[in-house]
Amino acid sequence: MDLNPELERLIRVASFDIGYPPESIIFVLRNGWTASEASFYQHIYAEELCWRLRDRAVDEFGSAAREKLSEWGIESTSDFGRLVFGMADFGLMAVNERDQIDDFDDVFEFDSAFNGVRNPEPVRLQWSIGKLLVLTTLAAVVVSGVLANGTEGIAGALISAWFVFLGLGCVVVAVVTRDRGWILLILTGSLFFLGGAVCFFALTNSR
């Protein structure tokens, strides 16, 4: 999470005032909402927020999640509440008139919630399938170029295919994120995709 100097200063002041280290405040800031919620105000209830922070801690720290939160002085869901309401006093989080700090009490028992958490095993099967897909795609592109123009067609086929995948990737990212400038990214990606497809088609049908 990129912090500008003013935000860093505000986090340090808030940390001193509410009694939790800056790392804990940054953790809540970074994981307290999803990408879609960051673009507009959407109320999150205390229970949902507590479980979300629990899950993000497990994703980030694995089996050390409970220990890491403890290092920051977070020993219960009530600490999440004190963090959130303390951050709200400094404009770092938003709460409404119906929210109460007591809503964070006893949402779940920390030891039970983190009991049995283990570091995830690497998903070797998915990694192998991904590598196989990449290799077979490259092989198909290379073969197409060779059949059309001999060994001289390899570079052209690879470059054309790269433009196709680059364009497709830009369009997918733009549609999924809907970030600022996403329409321009779709147009740019479409041009890359069409340009690469036309070049690849022309190259493989030149004979």
Summarize the structure.
With 207 residues, this protein is mostly helical.
SSE map:
Blueprint: H1 5-18, H2 22-31, H3 35-38, H4 46-61, H5 65-71, H6 77-89, H7 110-114, H8 124-149, H9 153-177, H10 182-204
Helix pairs in contact: 1-6, 4-5, 8-9, 9-10
Structural description of this entry:
With 207 residues, the protein is an all-alpha fold. The protein is 69% helix and 0% strand. It contains ten helices and no strands. The protein has helices at 5-18, 22-31, 35-38, 46-61, 65-71, 77-89, 110-114, 124-149, 153-177, 182-204. Helix 1 packs across helix 6 (77-89), helix 8 crosses helix 9 (153-177) and helix 9 runs antiparallel to helix 10. It starts with a helix and ends with a helix. The model is unreliable at 34-41 (pLDDT under 50).
